[in-house]
Amino acid sequence: MKGLLKKAVAVSILALCAGGAHAQKRPDLQGFWSNQSVTRMERPQGVDKLNVSEAEAIELERSSLWNQVYREQAGAVNVNEPLAAGAAAFETRGYNAFWIDPGRRLSKVKGDYRTSWVVEPSNGRIPWKTGGRALVQAASGKPPVGSYNGIETRPLAERCLLSFSNAGGPVMQNGLYNNTYQFVQSPDHVMILVEMAHEARIIPIVSGPSAVRHRPAEMTPWLGDSVGWYEGETLVVETVNPNPWQRGVITASGKLTERFSRWSDDQILYEFTVEDPSLYTQPWKGEMSFHKSSEPLYEYACHEGNYAMAGILGGARAQERGGRSAGENSEVES
Questions:
Q1: Orientation of helix 65-73 relative to helix 54-62, angle to 10°
Q2: Exposure b/e, 243-278, CB count within 10 A at least 16 = b
Q3: Does residue 20 register a pLDDT over 50?
Q4: Exposure b/e, 34-49, CB count within 10 A at least 16 = b
Q5: Which residues have C-beta within 8 Å of that of residue 17, sequence separation ≥ 6?
Q6: By the 8 A CB rule, do 196 and 176 touch?
Q7: Backbone phi, then psi, for 21, in 5-degree steps?
């Protein structure tokens, strides 16, 4: 009996060691990370290179719209001053510099200050086919946003279904605030919880690309259908078939391939390749950094059906009763 027990213990130890060795081949992505930055997907007009010096980065940062807003509004606020009325109230009661947190600096990727996430094509611009973003709208089958007749024609972010910054993907992007992410790994799944709009990517892990099995084409989840696998120290994720109402970077004919690896102790290198012949003249690629965050996720309490939607539609009905078309307010949509 003692001999059997010793053998069982030895086998268990060997299994644990094997499991530990296997785990060591996988990148440790767990924790809280942020892609907060004034770097955006596409390179600004007039900027002709991907990497810039620190002096050039500072100059570009100063010209950032949100840094300009921050400088203009950074002074003390007179809390006793009466609030503006009418149209001016929207400017004083909406998102000012206090509420937004897009970051102040260009992001460093692979040690260089970057002017765009897009690295291919070399001009840092998305290679849209003729028609550009209108092609995404046409492929979505969703009525154009703008009418206040019902929830169906209101933006998904306004309905608190998805973020307005495309934070959860396909292609996870940074926005005006809530740029924190939590990565959680288990042996057979990776979960990425997005601070903006509490989106969660739950990615099953398979043995390799030959083992990838996506859902039937009729199933079009928010954020797309993602399956992942490990290639040494890199997590690779393949995403297809996002819900067309998202109007994101790929349609039913497209594919997104993401690669996550640890560039350093405090940085994840996020690489992505977008392929969709219905939208683009060529595949395009990008690179982004996620930096370790000392802050946990902030609760995003907005949810579908919250009171704001009833207020928005109720306000439109009140305008109509007053003889005005609700469409007159279309300039404040987002």
A1: 60
A2: bbbbbbbbbeebbbbbebbebeeebbbbbbebbbee
A3: no
A4: bbbbbbbbebeeeeee
A5: none
A6: no
A7: -65, -40
**Which residues, at least 6 apart from 242, have a Cβ–Cβ distance to it below 8 Å?**
170, 220, 221, 222, 223, 224, 225, 248, 250
Tokens of 318: 């009140």
Residue given tokens 């010209």 in the structure block:
63
pLDDT of residue 79: 63
Q: Is residue 107 within 8 Å of 35, Cβ to Cβ?
A: yes
Residue 186 in tokens: 């288990």
Alpha-carbon span 249 to 256, nearest angstrom: 9
Give residues with Cβ within 8 angstroms of 13, minimum separation 6. Answer: none
Q: Dig out the tokens for 38 from the structure.
A: 């004034």
Which residues make beta-bridge pairs with 180?
Answer: 34
Kindly report whether the peptide bond that precedes residue 296 is cis, defined as omega within 30 degrees of 0: no
How is the chain split into domains, by residue range?
A: 31-36+117-332
Percentage helix, strand, coil for the chain under 3-state DSSP, each rounded to 5: 25, 25, 50
> Which pLDDT belongs to residue 320?
87
CA–CA distance, 135 with 127 (Å, rounded to integer): 13
- Give 98-150 as a DSSP string: TT----SSPPEETTEEES-SEEESTTSS--BPTTTTHHHHHHH-PPPBTB-SS
Strand partners, 108: 113
Q: What is the pLDDT of residue 154?
A: 87
Q: Region 60-83: what's the mean pLDDT? A: 76
How many other CB atoms are found less than 10 A from the CB of residue 25?
10
Question: Rounded to whole angstroms, how far apart are CA atoms 128 and 136?
Answer: 10
